[in-house]
């Protein structure tokens, strides 16, 4: 399928195009479920003023919405999204969790899979959704901007809701937990790369609304309201789109049945609290079985306790409200997200009774997250893939912080010094993102050309072993200072096609005790085990779940703990692996995984789509067989 030519698009033409695409989309989704459809959207990225917390703020959004549009597809569909960048920033869109099999050209990572979409230009993403169903999401993959450029990506089963491995829900509702920022997000992200940490979100949100915990004008602000009918079951598609925090979600007087995570079904289990980390999605059934009334839906962030650095973190809440009438249709539908403003205050509804308030976990409670994620096991269904028993390559990746000297100096004073700069590391190396003037790594890999960027192999183990989870390493001091020195490099690790790779991610206490939500593009990971403390292969391998591990695209290395995963490197191309905390990503907790071609055409990366804009201005640097192909694609 051909990509759209990269060019300027006037606003009037963009609006007309959006209307036309909306009509195409409505027609395509009206097709029978048995046949694959072509789903098409236009994303106009621009800036608009929104009011929250009694203040008008200029926000970068898609199609004027926060959250952005929900993309709904059926497994097997083809997706085309035209991104028109009318904002002042470079952007790309990443389809978080979509495997993009043999199609990393559409993965949407600047300078890794593509050039960024510059202001007043456009780019078309095209991909098929094969072998996946459940809740994923899309977001900008440029520093900071995913806080407002994001939305749900819902994949329905080919045979409809009747094929869910749980009772058919009455309705399906995206619940997106996020942040409200009054700061310049691009400036905030740039500052973090310079070890400047002075900008924080002003509030937390549920589906874009701050809720009535915030009362800047004397009138509580409107929050998200979910109307439910007694006895009905609702499928909540929960997404953490926040930049900095894992969240706990509770609904007073109700329990959840967790049925999926990261678009993979899990063995159902019941809980009154859901833990969802940045990048992660959780699907949970909510049975409206409480006495009719109003019940708060609370979301509270967690953070590591002292001696970790404490940052502003905000709870928020929406409302579950029982409807009096019984007029709603019994068909399964997806509820649209509220796009209203905060003005008007309070929650609608005629009930005079005060809403029931849930008892939330403490902000420093991190063990609840550990227990929640430990409860996830894969659902064994027909076609369930067995765990690969033979491992071809093992990596032990230590996640932490370190420092580099400012101004390129080789030596400097460490330990809360003005001479050094804080960075995040994997095996004591901090990822250096390629400059915008370089060639994207995918393009260089495919054409076997240089990328104007010096790469370095991601080490398979740390340079030294120590007590990784020693809490005495968290504050500045002589004990951690010897572990601080590091350096920056564009980290790459190559894998032979078909290799089974096992990775243990070990969180550390060096200058922090945070958890680390690690996201791998282009692949799912089997979560074999997790633990608190230092990983010990002599005893912890025995804990591996080799029968029904959960399958995730974002895994949590717990606070001062570890997680062990396996994945099959069967998707050829160039894939980003990184922590989904924005501060860790901006500071360098990332690497690039390159999966080599297999022995056949079906196991090899195909050429870029026709008209795929390249960053190489001198095609003479490419091999001759690729020069002809590129010349044809540009005509």
Automatic annotation (TrEMBL):
It catalyses: 4 hydroquinone + O2 = 4 benzosemiquinone + 2 H2O. CDD domains: CuRO_1_LCC_plant, CuRO_2_LCC_plant, CuRO_3_LCC_plant. Keywords: Apoplast, Copper, Lignin degradation, Metal-binding, Oxidoreductase, Repeat, Secreted, Signal. InterPro entries: Cu-oxidase-like_N, Cu-oxidase_2nd, Cu-oxidase_C, Cu-oxidase_fam, Cu_oxidase_CS, Cu_oxidase_Cu_BS, Cupredoxin, CuRO_1_LCC. Belongs to the multicopper oxidase family. Its cofactor is Cu cation. Residues 331-354 are annotated as: Disordered. Binds 4 Cu cations per monomer. Residues 331-341 have a biased composition (Polar residues). It comes from Urochloa decumbens. Pfam families: Cu-oxidase, Cu-oxidase_2, Cu-oxidase_3. One of its GO terms (biological process) is lignin catabolic process. It comes from the Eukaryota. It is found in: Secreted, Extracellular space, Apoplast. This is Laccase. GO terms for cellular component: apoplast. Lignin degradation and detoxification of lignin-derived products.
């Amino acid at each position: 399928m051909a990509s759209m030519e990269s060019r300027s698009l006037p606003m009037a033409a963009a609006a007309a195009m959006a209307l036309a695409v909306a009509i195409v989309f409505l027609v395509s989704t009206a097709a029978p479920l048995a046949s694959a459809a072509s789903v098409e959207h236009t994303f106009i990225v621009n800036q608009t003023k929104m009011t929250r917390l009694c203040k008008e703020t200029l926000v970068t959004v898609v199609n004027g919405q926060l959250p952005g549009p929900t993309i709904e597809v059926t497994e097997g569909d083809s997706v085309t999204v035209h991104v028109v960048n009318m904002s002042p920033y470079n952007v790309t869109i990443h389809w978080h969790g979509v495997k993009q099999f043999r199609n990393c050209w559409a993965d949407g990572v600047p300078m890794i899979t593509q050039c960024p979409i510059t202001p007043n230009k456009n780019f078309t993403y095209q991909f098929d959704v094969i072998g996946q169903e459940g809740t994923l999401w899309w977001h900008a993959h440029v520093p900071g901007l995913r806080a407002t450029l994001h939305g749900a990506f819902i994949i329905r089963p080919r045979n409809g809701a009747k094929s869910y491995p749980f009772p058919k829900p009455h309705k399906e509702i995206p619940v997106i937990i996020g942040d409200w920022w009054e700061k310049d997000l691009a400036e905030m992200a740039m500052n973090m790369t310079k070890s400047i940490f002075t900008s924080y979100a002003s509030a937390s949100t549920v589906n874009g609304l701050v809720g009535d915990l915030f009362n800047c004008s004397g009138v509580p602000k409107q929050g998200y309201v979910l109307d439910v009918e007694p006895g009905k079951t609702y499928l909540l598609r929960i997404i953490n789109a926040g930049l900095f925090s894992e969240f706990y979600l509770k609904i007073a007087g109700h329990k959840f049945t967790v049925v999926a995570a990261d678009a993979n079904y899990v063995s159902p289990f019941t809980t009154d609290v859901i833990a969802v980390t940045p990048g992660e999605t959780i699907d949970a059934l909510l049975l409206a079985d409480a006495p009719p009334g109003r019940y708060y839906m609370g979301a509270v962030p967690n953070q590591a306790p002292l001696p970790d650095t404490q940052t502003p973190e905000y709870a928020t809440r929406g409302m579950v409200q029982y409807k009096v009438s019984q007029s709603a249709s019994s068909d399964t539908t997806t509820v649209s997200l509220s796009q209203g403003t905060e003005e008007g205050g309070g929650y609608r509804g005629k009930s005079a009774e005060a809403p029931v308030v849930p008892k939330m976990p403490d902000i420093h409670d991190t063990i609840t997250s550990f227990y929640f994620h430990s409860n996830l096991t894969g659902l064994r269904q027909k076609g369930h893939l067995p765990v690969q028993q033979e491992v071809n390559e093992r990596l032990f990746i230590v996640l932490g912080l370190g420092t580099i000297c400012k101004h390129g100096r080789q030596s400097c004073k460490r330990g809360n010094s003005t001479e050094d700069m804080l960075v995040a590391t994997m095996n004591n190396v901090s990822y250096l993102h390629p400059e915008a003037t370089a060639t994207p790594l995918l393009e260089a890999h495919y054409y076997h050309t240089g990328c104007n960027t010096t790469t370095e192999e991601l080490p398979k183990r740390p340079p030294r072993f120590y007590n990784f989870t020693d809490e005495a390493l968290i504050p500045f001091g002589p004990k951690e200072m010897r572990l601080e020195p590091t350096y920056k490099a564009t980290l790459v690790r190559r894998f032979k096609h078909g290799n089974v790779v096992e990775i243990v991610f070990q969180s550390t206490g060096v200058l922090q005790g945070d958890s680390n939500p690690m996201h791998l593009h282009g692949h799912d990971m089997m979560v074999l085990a997790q633990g608190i403390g230092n990983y010990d292969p002599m005893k912890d391998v025995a804990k591996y779940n080799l029968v029904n591990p959960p399958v995730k695209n974002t895994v949590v290395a717990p606070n001062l703990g570890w997680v062990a995963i396996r994945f099959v490197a069967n998707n050829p191309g160039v894939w980003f692996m990184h922590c989904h905390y924005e501060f860790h990503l901006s500071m360098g907790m990332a690497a690039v995984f390159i999966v080599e071609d297999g022995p056949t055409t079906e196991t090899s990366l195909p050429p870029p789509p026709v008209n795929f804009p390249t960053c190489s201005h001198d095609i003479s640097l490419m091999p001759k067989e690729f020069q002809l192909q590129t010349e044809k694609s540009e005509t």
